[in-house]
């Protein structure tokens, strides 16, 4: 039986039809493009011309700066607009971005959105639209580095797929919503430098996937919730420059992967738990500017490795532990402005430290202080 051969014209038509179908499928959803235009209308970016690419005669999935879409559905999945970037548009202008305006609720119509980044523009103000919590597919919400006000949306816990929440360096207020601890997929939480008040939720430890909790420079009160002790993935905890009070719990030093702990500029009292200083996993420990008292635990050893250890501006007394000389590495050490006495040990790390690390104590002597014991 003779084979039926397709004519060149038939083949050409088939290719054209396939190309048309692919193009049609991948073009931007008209509803999403309408929502993006409304979103753009509430923002002004005068220097870089970013929104010049957002024109009606261009496909928002292919040609609009900062927009990405699902290749099959044509739905918008990512808004990625950063005011500090190494993209060519920034390199050419030689400046960082500046944008003013507000976040229009029309963004909530982008129901396929998985990533919403509108960060480091310095001038975007107003509140976060509460309807943002209806974006069920959202995995990244990064609105840091603006002038946003108001509170964290109360229903933030509805974003069950959220892995990154970054609202740092804004002017937000109110308390951490109770629903936030329902974000079981959350890995990165950053609320630094706002006006967030109230206590850390008692069930904060429910965030089992969290590896970074950066809550410094706020108005948080209360003590460290015990539930944090069960956060086995938590590597970075920053609660500096708040109003946290009470003693540092012993369990803090028993956390398995915690490597950065910033508790400086709070109202912590009582002694320093020995478990914190003997934990070889800590790399950065800042307990400065509190009301800690007692002696520095003599628990250092050959596995001790501190990139930075700051115990300054407390009421610590007694001698500098001799065991600190046996530490594997101590890069920066500051024990100034305490009530320490006695000779400064010799050897590493003391031989590379300056007098400022030991100044304003009760009766320390020797070493870089040039004070005879």
Automatic annotation (TrEMBL):
Cell compartments where the protein resides: Cell membrane; Membrane
InterPro entries: Leu-rich_rpt, LRR_dom_sf, LRR_N_plant-typ
Chief subcellular location: membrane
SUPFAM superfamilies named in the record: L domain-like
Pfam families according to UniProt: LRR_1, LRR_8, LRRNT_2
Keywords: Glycoprotein, Leucine-rich repeat, Membrane, Receptor, Repeat, Signal, Transmembrane, Transmembrane helix
GO cellular component: plasma membrane
Ranges for domain Leucine-rich repeat-containing N-terminal plant-type: 30-70
Membrane topology: Single-pass membrane protein; Single-pass type I membrane protein
Signal sequence interval, chain numbering: 1-27
Family the UniProt entry places it in: Belongs to the RLP family.
Stated name of the protein: Leucine-rich repeat-containing N-terminal plant-type domain-containing protein
